[in-house]
From TrEMBL:
Residues 527-884 form the PEP-utilising enzyme C-terminal domain. This is Pyruvate, phosphate dikinase. Residues 425-510 form the PEP-utilising enzyme mobile domain. It comes from Chlamydomonas reinhardtii. Keywords: ATP-binding, Kinase, Magnesium, Metal-binding, Nucleotide-binding, Transferase. It comes from the Eukaryota.
Amino acid sequence: MAPIRRIYGFARGSSDGNKSMKELLGGKGAYLCEMARCGLNVPPGFTITTEVCEEFYANGGMLPEALKTEVKAAVAVVEADMGLKFGDVNTPLLVSVRSGAAVSMPGMMDTVLNLGLNDAIVEGFAAKYGARFAMDCYRRLMQMFGDVVLEIPHEAFEAKLAALKGRKGVQYDVQLDADDLRELIAAYKQVYAEHKQELPQDPWQQLYLGINAVFKSWNIPRAIKYREINKITGLKGTAVNVQTMVYGNMGESSGTGVCFTRNPANGASELFGEFLINAQGEDVVAGIRTPMPIKLMADVMPPIYAELVANTTMLEKHMKDMQDVEFTVQEGRLFMLQCRSGKRTGTAALRIALELQAEGIIDRDEAVLMVEPRHLDQLLHPQFESDKGYAKDVITRGLAASPGAAVGRLVFSAAEAEEWKARGERVILCRHETSPEDVGGMHAAEGIVTCRGGMTSHAAVVARGWGKPCVCGCEHLHIDLKTKTLTFELHGAEVRLREGDWVSLNGTSGEVINGAQPLKAPEVTGGDLGKLMAWVDKARRLRVLANVDTPEDAAIARANGAQGIGLCRTEHMFFSTHERIAAMRRMIAEEELASSHKLEALEALKAFQREDFEGIFKAMDGLPVTIRLLDPPLHEFLPQEGPAMAALCRQLAGELGASVERVEARLNGLREVNPMMGLRGCRLGIVHPEITDMQATAILEAATRVAAAGGHVHPHIMVPLVATTDEMDHQLHVIHAAAKRVAAATGEKVPYKVGTMIEVPRAALQAGPLAERADFFSFGTNDLTQMTYGISRDDAQAKFLTTYTHNGILQSDPFDTLDVVGVGEMVRIAVERGRAAKPDLELGICGEHGGDPNSIAFFNKVGLDYVSCSPLRVPIARLAAAQAAIKAAAKAK
Ligand code: ADP
Ligand code: MG
Ligand code: MG
């Protein structure tokens, strides 16, 4: 076996690596190589691979001994190239040591500049290049090395610098002369001494410690946090780049800058960035002096500016994307120090993708790949005018459960939300947690905050379904329902908000904010988005349907490009008005099947449902509408135990002419220890066939009416939670009987399909025989995940999932992104066995995963026909489906 190669070199006009080696060299290293290969002026250096980072951690956080010899050899190559010598007093080579992982994590890890100076070398350096410059480099080294490597708080250095500037009566560090800087260096030595440290005088020691510190910075808390937030997983670690220093602090003909090849906020095709004369490295970002807009360089250094424009234009074409570039000018010579794909807003992403295509730099497929799902997400929600403007008003940070910005007045109950809304007010509904009973108020609210519950809590799921901003699990908020107040601590003081006070929510960041923060509508010119979406639709294979419960949402789904409804949940329909929930409760409470009360309640519910379905069929004219039969346990339609329940029992006893005790016994008898695995789904329809009959009749009567009026209806009736063929046969029998009755009564026969959800493992395993009975399968991946994994959707997040994802025991929450390995295998088995039994079996997914881009890539691969997601995620799912198809095709080539 060949020994592993730890180091790759790069230099002007040549390099060992290239941009496709990002995994190994990190983004910074790979693109330094690529820039060098393109002939750009890159200070020579080398990259120690990300594999060495793994080795470093396996080695207990120490550099592998062999590395040191290899570093020495690599430095020798650079020395020869530069005609300088590391550690030499007369011709010293200085280097930077820079972090850089495969995925860019801007500013999260560490970098040390000007390594290679010591008390003696700095004098040689001064003799060669001037004392002021040499001392400036040395004090910078002391500051960065102290901070990054020796963990001396950087405030200690800043205090000395500020004090010196004060004493000298100057505002900026460039106004300090050589003697001032000598004084500063002495003060810095004092700081070192106070912290019982010293700057190693051996340059090699500095270099090894610098490399060590950069590897270590891979696992500093802010880097870990950043990876967590951005779901960056599966990387080996950071690479380390050792690079010849070039000096932007060599006077007025030198400087340092950063720029984007296009405007990252709005996408305009212009060089965008900043430049600082006589400065080094982080000075631009750190705001030490106000930098000049990059375009002014055209006046100050015209030839350099022209070269920069030529370089960045070339790079953008070569890399086929908008670039974020770092550079330094040393005495009138331009050096390129970094390039990468620039981060951008949704608005910019769209414009840049279209313009790069129009300029012939990328093709349509590449344009589709360039706009990320989260960009589209941003484009589709109202946004805060500035997300920095409100920083001081942030009340708390919870889980960013549903993205977007919302502003409204605080209310604490669903009923109040509806009342305020009816008076024309915008409201934010704040609850301990929400339940299905709250849906009316949730719908009325602009946004939702809960104190308990995770990303798949009721509030989160429902809010995402509607594209309503939602922040969950805000444990630091205290609601007092009696006084209708919300208490929390802000800047050390207790603050109390009352009903009607204005609050704002940033569902994208999870922030709850005091006051009404200004909002702006998404800046999308329909034309641009429309153009991209046309390419998207051409590229994808998966159809995209929507999960929709009302005619209004059906219209939204259609406008967003939904090709039908993949999941219409009937239970929410029973909550939408007072009469409906009352009829539902009478039906539940009445035991006697044939009693007039029961029949009356069923008849009332049927009429409500028929009306809803008619509306939905009309809204989805010509497209399939998949309606799921009643699914949740019946007790979800009842209030919690307590006064509300007691009152309901009394009321129902009166209405049904039964004793209160009897009604109580009946309703309390519905409670289950483990309701998720209890009497729900098709089990309800089997224990209470009258419910299935009522629903099937309502669906088919509605379909018949709409068809008779000239509509094109495609009802798909979906049986939930089936595990056995006998269950399916039972429900099929009830449904077909209802269909016959409707046909006989109306003289019309509307074609319909009956399918099943695949959401318990037994159904997936029995997919063959089930397929013989079903026209379609729809994977209910929420339940399928819950049941395959044995993880409760309701509790797991708070109890252990967060710990799991934090510790890397799980890469991601399986309710957010489908567990492709385990639950995915269940899906694959069902697809194979189902299609083997019935080749034209239609296959779809209607769980929350239907809107998740990573999961969609899997559904594309496994060969499903469609995904179904909430109406507002439809464009995102279309994009994700297209990207999956394009990537799959590229891989096949
Ligand atoms: P980050 O990943 O935080 O951007 P970098 O490794 O890019 O850190 O370093 C930050 C800055 O330091 C660079 O933008 C550049 O200005 C400066 N820098 C790094 N290496 C050198 C070098 N060899 N010569 C001159 N400046 C450098
Ligand atoms: Mg950088
Ligand atoms: Mg389910």
